[in-house]
Amino acid sequence: MNAPLPLIDNLEHLPNPYTQYPTILNNLKAGVRQLEDPDYARDLQLALCFIYSYNGSQATFNSYRREVERLLLWSWYVKHTPATTLKRDEIEEFIHFCNTPPESWIGIKNVARFKNHMGERVPNDEWRPYVAHVSKLDFRNGQIPLSEKYSLSQAAIRATFSILSSYYGFLMQEEAVQQNPVALIRQKSKFVKKEVTRRQVRRISNLQWDYVIETAELLAEEDPAMHERTLFIMNALLGMYLRISELVADERSAPTMGDFIKDTDGNWWFKVLSKGNKERLVSVSDEMLNALIRYRRFRQLPDLPTVAEPTPVIPKNRGQGAMTSSRQVRNIVQHCFDQAYYRMCDDGHKSDADDLRVATVHWLRHTGISEDVKVRPKEHVREDAGHSSMATTDKYIDTEYRERHASGRKKTLRPH
Fold first, then answer.
1. Higher pLDDT, 47 or 317
2. According to the UniProt entry, which residue ranges have a biased composition of type Basic residues (predicted)?
3. What residues contact 174, with CB distance under 8 A and at least 6 apart?
4. Same domain for 214 and 356?
5. pLDDT of amino acid 200
6. Contact 256, 250 (CB under 8 A)
């Protein structure tokens, strides 16, 4: 089975499907013969309108595009029917397909869906609907992804069910389908395993953090021009539990120094635009405020931000404006992790250092929340973290694990 071509371009290149759908259709018709049929053309238009409604968040748009586009491609090329005609058993068949797609549909690296050619956006024939990955540590050890080892995680399966159920709910509102076939699947448990216990939060240890932040401080002393920014980024990610998207500029927002706000009591807050386009205020601790002052002094700014100060929080390496590359932040954090790992190994802590080989930026957020929830009211931590429910914050409370392990530590292998 040959690999299909992509259907939906990146958000910045996608015309509004509500008003410019004929343009999108004409650009795709040459490579997708199904679109000569009005039923398939309508199928695509509905999908585009649904996905485009999530244009307020690049990450959400990408997730919904991935799932709906896979469904359309499978429905068109495997079942040879528009997705609006699929029934419950066919949706189950699609989930099985996602678990074990043919090798021709699996890539071993992320490539652009579309590319520029003679002033036009054309489908990239190297793109694949599914991509095999290896772990961060395996990749660093020289292993490469193999299409035959592709697998779908439990989290990915849950996302597929959730997004497709929303999609068919939209189709019902548009009177394009009579029922939601995803909602009719009663035994989702055969696809999604129920967790029998709460998963532990992926975080770095306090010893690892001590080495990481000390490493950032040493780097800043050796090369301030390069690494004062590194030090501030590390402190901000842990100290305010920020996501990368809340630190770099994107189409929704560009964090500025004016987002640091002092209230009438003299307390400092940092205003961020978080998931779901919701603004929240994060409390700024005294130590975080000192880290901000140090960073501002390096940048030859007054110690504290002024009201509505437009200075970018994280500037570009070159040129004007705010940093827009989340990959650049990941590289900065990874360099810090790597240097801390080597220092820990040199100090005889290799076994304690190993997590730094697989840790990601998001682990810093988890670490900050996990430590704060030990000493602060969890309601306050929830607000600072931007969790939608207390259940999410509760996942960071590991008292249950500590007590459970303490009670089991004295178990004997030779009962009396």
1. 47
2. 407-416
3. 46
4. yes
5. 66
6. no
pLDDT above 90: residue 394: no
Mean of pLDDT over the chain? 89
Kindly state whether residues 294 and 237 are assigned to the same domain. Answer: yes
Q: Which of 1, 5, 30 is nearest to 128 (CA)?
A: 5
Q: What is the pLDDT of residue 274?
A: 80
Residues 181 and 213 occupy one common structural domain: no
Task: Identify the residue whose tokens are 């071993």.
Answer: 108
| pLDDT value for 45 | 96
Same domain? 143 vs 169: yes
What is the distance between the alpha carbons of residues 321 and 33, in angstroms, rounded to a whole number? 44
Q: What share of the chain is helix, strand, coil (3-state, %, to 5)?
A: 55, 10, 40
Sequential DSSP letters for 219-280: HHHH-HHHHHHHHHHHHHHHHT---GGGTS--SS---BGGGEEE-TTS-EEEEEEEGGGEEE
pLDDT tens digits, 376-388: 998 999 999 988 8
What are the Cα distances from residue 211, in Å, to 176, 218, 235, 329? Answer: 57, 10, 13, 19
Regarding whether 78 and 37 lie in a shared domain, the answer is: yes
pLDDT-wise least confident of 57-61, 204-208, 259-263: 57-61
Look at 129 and 135; give whichever has higher pLDDT.
Answer: 129
> Largest alpha-carbon pair distance within the chain?
82
Residues of the domain holding 344: 206-404
Beta bridge partners of 278: 274
As given in the structure block, the two tokens for residue 131 are 């991509």
Instruction: Please name every residue paired with 116 in a beta bridge, in sequence order, or none if there are none.
Output: 121
Are the beta carbons of 359 and 337 closer than 8 angstroms? Answer: yes
pLDDT at residue 91 tops 90: yes
Please give the pLDDT value at position 307: 92
Q: Are strands 130-131 and 106-107 parallel, antiparallel or unpaired?
A: parallel
Q: Which of these, 255, 287, 286, lies nearest to 271 by C-alpha position?
A: 255
What is the pTM assigned to this prediction?
Answer: 0.68
Residues 71 and 219 in one domain: no
